[in-house]
Write a structure and sequence with these properties.
This protein is an alpha/beta fold. The chain has nine helices and 14 strands. The chain has helices at about 35-45, 60-65, 65-70, 150-160, 175-185, 190-205, 215-220, 230-240, 245-260, and strands spanning about 5-10, 15-20, 30, 50-55, 75-80, 95, 100-105, 105-110, 120-125, 130-135, 135-140, 140, 170, 215. The strands form three sheets. It has a six-stranded mixed β-sheet, covered by helices on one side. It has a six-stranded mixed β-sheet with strand order 7-8-9-10-13-14. The chain has a two-stranded antiparallel ribbon with strand order 11-12. The model has no long low-confidence stretch (mean pLDDT about 95). Bound molecules: zinc ion. Zinc ion binds near residues 57, 59 and 135.
Length: about 260
């Protein structure tokens, strides 16, 4: 099966855009882009012309480069969520949960992952063990619940968590170090989390990205997935939430992070 080569392109202060290239056909695609000039400079260096950009959600720090990329690369396909057309003015192709999109010979399934916004989607390239999940799941964290409900965000996180454990998680921001600090506050005895803290510190000290992690790793360290772990449940109970209700535990954890 055809595979993608994936490159991180840091943008703005802590955003990640991604450039993907189908190893069979050489077709190039992009996931999210706030800064077209910066992206064009990256692509020029490679000598590549992108065919498509895959948008995860409408926030400006994910889509503001789209217009400039379309001007530079006429015919560029711009994928976006079908029920968010008004907020994705430069999108050309609209998709929904379960749709298949492709880049060259590489196929992705669209996953609807609302919560951060009510029109958020992720792209799962199963053949490349890769998911591009925008601001839904972060390494050791999750996006703020701006528009959806906590129940929706919990369900979206569980949907991503159900992908094969070897799936690489390509998220929208480098928030890992602060996410790990919070995770340790609610899950202090988690040995894998402690090991991850050391790994993250070393990478950041070297100026390296902490992305991608994997779904397997996130299941072990991400407090927003560990709603059945006793320490996370206890932290929720201390906030007066029903520790036996996964959504209540998720809400308590997310609310505590908002105020951390
Ligand atoms: Zn966002």
């Amino acid at each position: 099966m055809a595979k993608l080569e994936v490159m991180l392109v840091p943008q703005l202060s802590d955003n990640y855009s991604y450039v993907m290239r189908c190893e069979d056909t050489g077709d190039v695609g992009i996931v999210d882009c706030p800064d077209a000039e910066d992206m064009i400079a990256f692509l020029n260096k490679k000598g590549w012309t992108p065919k498509a950009i895959f948008l995860t959600h409408h926030h400006w720090d994910h889509i503001d480069g789209t217009k400039g990329l379309k001007e530079k690369y006429p015919g560029l396909k711009v994928y976006g969520y079908i029920h968010d057309q008004k907020r994705l003015p430069d999108a050309t192709d609209f998709v929904d949960e379960g749709d298949t999109v492709s880049l060259g010979a590489c196929e992705a399934k669209v996953l609807f992952t609302p919560g951060h916004t009510i029109g958020h989607i992720a792209y799962h390239f199963a053949g490349s063990d890769a998911v591009f999940c925008g601001d839904t799941m972060f390494a050791a964290g999750c996006g703020r619940v701006f528009e959806g409900t906590f129940a929706q965000m919990h369900e979206s996180m569980q949907k991503l968590a159900a992908l094969p454990p070897e799936t690489k998680v390509y998220c929208g921001h480098e928030y890992t170090a602060s996410n790990v600090r919070f995770a340790l506050a609610v899950d202090p005895e988690n040995l894998e989390l402690k090991a991850f803290e050391v790994e993250v510190k070393q990478l950041r000290d070297e100026g390296q990205p902490t992305i991608p992690t994997t779904i397997g790793k996130e299941l072990a360290v991400n407090p927003f997935l560990r709603v059945d772990a006793p320490s996370i449940q206890q932290a929720a109970a201390e906030m007066g939430k029903d520790a036996s209700d996964p959504v209540a535990v998720f809400e308590a954890t997310r609310t505590r992070k908002d105020n951390f």
